[in-house]
Specification:
359 residues, alpha/beta, Purple Acid Phosphatase, chain A, domain 2, 6-stranded mixed sheet, 12 helices, elongated
């Protein structure tokens, strides 16, 4: 509760800081200042509206509100950074004080920079990066395997059915033996997913699909999410193991679950090549101690945009990319989809193509 109060207070202070700067920098008198500031505050209100009212809106309106509202968060972040840097530069006499007061040049420059970041970040998000990794093992396999791995699809009001179909084409192009998804297939609401029958798109994947719950499945409706996975032909692993052509796929319940098994308990007695799906990449030493061969996780998004990526790098032992502890290999994915605005700055949307071969 204290954290929520502190977060709300900080948000109010920073919103006031940006709103005051917009009022101050806007030229052409009181009416224009009021218009610029009011538009920013309305955009702010739309962001918070996204958390409470989307499921009660018509679908098309809800989609627009979600995409426009969540874009505010990134614009807000960069407006803060720009105004803080501009204030520091002004105090150090590196920037004329007139740039920040009644300045058409100042306002247009800042709006142009933020708009350019959002546009370029949008293009960057839509490009999906293909990461490839080959692992050799002395453990017996039925045959060499190609497994496509992804996380954090966040399907819903913004990542729609057509976008999912495009991702399925990328997956099928790899001719995988299996597809593993490390949680957060659902963004926050099942309404668009069920209404538009996203399940039928998953049936177009030419390989068995395995997944685990992520935290966002708990934010939506965990029981309804489970039924959706069944309808989509997705095999849900809840603290359980699937045996696939010499590979033991361990699916661990998310940290949001009140109960979940230890990695050691799940791996006990397994003698095949072990892959652990664990949505949130905390306590990576557990996989090492349990003798897991490969762990795949997501959740971090690597912050989605810079400089939030610096924060995730501090929070997690590894917030993105390849990692190794002892004989255990890891890949922490920044996600195929995204939460909120479809913008990536300094991070990337990706999927992993894992080849497993005998030595």
């Amino acid at each position: 509760m204290k954290f929520l109060v502190l977060f709300a207070a900080l948000d109010i202070i920073l919103t006031g800081y940006v709103a005051w700067h917009l009022w101050r920098i806007a030229p052409m008198g009181w009416y224009f200042k009021m218009t610029v500031t009011a538009l920013f505050l309305l955009w702010t209100a739309l962001f918070f509206l996204c958390f409470f009212s989307l499921d009660r809106m018509p679908m098309r309106l809800a989609t627009v509100c979600y995409e426009v509202g969540t874009t505010w968060l990134i614009a807000f972040l960069y407006l803060q950074i720009i105004f803080i840097l501009a204030d520091i530069a002004s105090l150090c006499h590196l920037l004329p004080k007139t740039f920040l007061k009644d300045s058409a040049t100042g306002l247009l420059s800042i709006v142009a920079v933020v708009t350019l970041l959002l546009v370029l970040g949008g293009f960057h998000y839509h490009h999906k990066y293909r990461e490839e990794l080959t692992i050799t093992t002395p453990k017996p396999l039925d045959k060499p395997l190609t497994i496509v791995m992804a996380s954090d699809l966040h399907l819903g009001y913004h990542n729609r059915k057509a976008e999912l179909a495009r991702w399925v084409e990328l997956i099928n192009a790899e001719h995988p033996d299996a597809v593993l998804i490390a949680g957060d297939i659902i963004d926050r609401s099942l309404r668009p997913i069920l209404q538009d029958n996203y399940a039928e798109v998953f049936h177009d994947i030419h390989a068995p699909v395995y997944t685990v719950f992520g935290n966002h499945e708990y934010y939506s409706d965990i029981r309804q999410a489970e039924r959706f996975f069944a309808d989509a032909g997705i095999i849900l692993l809840k603290d359980s193991v699937a045996h696939f052509k010499g590979v033991d796929i361990i699916g661990r319940n998310d940290k949001m679950s009140k109960r979940r098994a230890t990695v050691s308990d799940l791996a006990a007695g397994l003698d095949g090549f072990t892959i652990l799906l664990d949505h949130q990449p905390y306590n990576l030493e557990e996989a090492e101690h349990a003798g897991i061969d490969f762990q795949f996780s997501g959740h971090t998004h690597r912050g989605q945009v810079w400089p939030i990526s610096w924060i995730t790098d501090l929070i997690y032992e590894k917030s993105w990319g390849h990692h190794q502890r002892g004989h255990t290999r890891y890949y922490i994915s920044s996600g195929l989809g995204i939460w909120g605005a479809k913008v990536r700055i300094g991070t990337r949307s990706e999927y992993l193509v894992l080849h497993i071969q005998n030595v």
